[in-house]
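Q: Could you fold this chain for me?
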Amino acid sequence: MDEEIRKLLEEEIKTEIRNLSTLEPGSKEKSTAIEDLAKLYRLRIEETRNEWDFNEKYESRDSDMQFKKNQLEEQVKDRYFRLGVEVASIILPLIFYGIWMRKGFKFEETGTFTSTTFRGLFNRFRPTKK
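A: Sure. Below is the predicted structure, expressed as C-alpha coordinates.
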Protein backbone atom coordinates (compact mmCIF):
# COMPACT_ATOMS: atom_id res chain seq x y z
CA MET A 1 0.00 0.00 0.00
CA ASP A 2 1.24 3.46 -0.76
CA GLU A 3 2.88 5.16 2.20
CA GLU A 4 0.72 8.28 1.88
CA ILE A 5 -2.50 6.27 1.89
CA ARG A 6 -1.28 4.29 4.90
CA LYS A 7 -0.62 7.51 6.81
CA LEU A 8 -4.06 8.85 5.91
CA LEU A 9 -5.67 5.63 7.13
CA GLU A 10 -3.70 5.80 10.39
CA GLU A 11 -4.75 9.43 10.91
CA GLU A 12 -8.38 8.59 10.21
CA ILE A 13 -8.29 5.77 12.76
CA LYS A 14 -6.73 8.11 15.35
CA THR A 15 -9.35 10.77 14.62
CA GLU A 16 -12.18 8.26 15.01
CA ILE A 17 -10.76 7.09 18.35
CA ARG A 18 -10.54 10.71 19.60
CA ASN A 19 -14.09 11.45 18.43
CA LEU A 20 -15.32 8.31 20.13
CA SER A 21 -14.55 9.71 23.58
CA THR A 22 -16.68 12.82 22.91
CA LEU A 23 -19.81 10.85 22.03
CA GLU A 24 -22.40 9.90 24.59
CA PRO A 25 -22.25 6.26 25.78
CA GLY A 26 -25.05 4.05 24.47
CA SER A 27 -26.07 6.50 21.74
CA LYS A 28 -26.71 5.51 18.16
CA GLU A 29 -23.96 7.85 16.94
CA LYS A 30 -21.39 6.13 19.19
CA SER A 31 -22.44 2.70 17.88
CA THR A 32 -22.11 3.92 14.29
CA ALA A 33 -18.71 5.46 15.09
CA ILE A 34 -17.53 2.17 16.63
CA GLU A 35 -18.68 0.24 13.55
CA ASP A 36 -16.88 2.72 11.29
CA LEU A 37 -13.75 2.44 13.41
CA ALA A 38 -13.92 -1.35 13.25
CA LYS A 39 -14.23 -1.22 9.44
CA LEU A 40 -11.26 1.11 9.17
CA TYR A 41 -9.19 -1.10 11.47
CA ARG A 42 -10.14 -4.24 9.50
CA LEU A 43 -9.07 -2.45 6.34
CA ARG A 44 -5.72 -1.60 7.95
CA ILE A 45 -5.25 -5.22 9.07
CA GLU A 46 -6.14 -6.49 5.59
CA GLU A 47 -3.69 -4.12 3.92
CA THR A 48 -0.94 -5.12 6.34
CA ARG A 49 -1.66 -8.79 5.67
CA ASN A 50 -1.55 -8.18 1.91
CA GLU A 51 1.77 -6.40 2.26
CA TRP A 52 3.20 -9.30 4.29
CA ASP A 53 1.97 -11.80 1.70
CA PHE A 54 3.52 -9.77 -1.10
CA ASN A 55 6.85 -9.55 0.73
CA GLU A 56 6.79 -13.28 1.50
CA LYS A 57 6.10 -14.15 -2.14
CA TYR A 58 8.82 -11.78 -3.30
CA GLU A 59 11.36 -13.33 -0.92
CA SER A 60 10.24 -16.81 -1.92
CA ARG A 61 10.69 -15.95 -5.59
CA ASP A 62 14.17 -14.57 -4.87
CA SER A 63 15.16 -17.72 -3.00
CA ASP A 64 13.76 -19.89 -5.81
CA MET A 65 15.74 -17.93 -8.38
CA GLN A 66 18.91 -18.28 -6.29
CA PHE A 67 18.28 -22.03 -5.93
CA LYS A 68 17.80 -22.41 -9.69
CA LYS A 69 20.95 -20.38 -10.35
CA ASN A 70 22.96 -22.60 -7.98
CA GLN A 71 21.45 -25.71 -9.55
CA LEU A 72 22.40 -24.49 -13.04
CA GLU A 73 25.97 -23.81 -11.91
CA GLU A 74 26.20 -27.33 -10.48
CA GLN A 75 24.87 -28.80 -13.73
CA VAL A 76 27.49 -26.92 -15.72
CA LYS A 77 30.26 -28.16 -13.41
CA ASP A 78 28.92 -31.71 -13.66
CA ARG A 79 28.75 -31.46 -17.46
CA TYR A 80 32.39 -30.31 -17.69
CA PHE A 81 33.48 -33.06 -15.29
CA ARG A 82 31.70 -35.72 -17.36
CA LEU A 83 33.22 -34.31 -20.54
CA GLY A 84 36.68 -34.48 -18.94
CA VAL A 85 36.12 -38.11 -17.94
CA GLU A 86 34.96 -39.00 -21.45
CA VAL A 87 37.98 -37.29 -23.04
CA ALA A 88 40.29 -39.08 -20.60
CA SER A 89 38.63 -42.42 -21.42
CA ILE A 90 39.54 -41.83 -25.08
CA ILE A 91 43.01 -40.31 -24.67
CA LEU A 92 44.41 -42.68 -22.03
CA PRO A 93 43.93 -45.86 -24.10
CA LEU A 94 45.49 -44.11 -27.10
CA ILE A 95 48.53 -43.20 -25.03
CA PHE A 96 48.71 -46.76 -23.71
CA TYR A 97 48.55 -48.22 -27.23
CA GLY A 98 51.15 -45.71 -28.44
CA ILE A 99 53.60 -46.82 -25.76
CA TRP A 100 53.04 -50.49 -26.62
CA MET A 101 53.44 -49.75 -30.32
CA ARG A 102 56.86 -48.15 -29.73
CA LYS A 103 57.97 -51.13 -27.70
CA GLY A 104 56.64 -53.44 -30.38
CA PHE A 105 58.51 -51.61 -33.13
CA LYS A 106 61.74 -52.08 -31.18
CA PHE A 107 61.02 -55.80 -31.21
CA GLU A 108 60.28 -55.60 -34.92
CA GLU A 109 63.71 -54.08 -35.62
CA THR A 110 65.30 -57.38 -34.66
CA GLY A 111 62.75 -59.27 -36.71
CA THR A 112 61.34 -61.30 -33.86
CA PHE A 113 58.44 -60.84 -31.53
CA THR A 114 59.60 -62.21 -28.21
CA SER A 115 56.79 -60.89 -26.08
CA THR A 116 53.54 -62.89 -26.18
CA THR A 117 51.67 -59.89 -24.83
CA PHE A 118 52.79 -57.69 -27.69
CA ARG A 119 52.08 -60.38 -30.26
CA GLY A 120 48.44 -60.37 -29.17
CA LEU A 121 48.24 -56.57 -29.18
CA PHE A 122 50.15 -56.19 -32.45
CA ASN A 123 47.61 -58.33 -34.29
CA ARG A 124 44.97 -55.81 -33.28
CA PHE A 125 47.06 -52.79 -34.31
CA ARG A 126 48.02 -53.93 -37.80
CA PRO A 127 45.54 -53.17 -40.52
CA THR A 128 44.62 -56.52 -42.01
CA LYS A 129 41.92 -57.73 -44.33
CA LYS A 130 39.56 -60.20 -42.79
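A (continued): The chain is about 85% helix and 0% strand.
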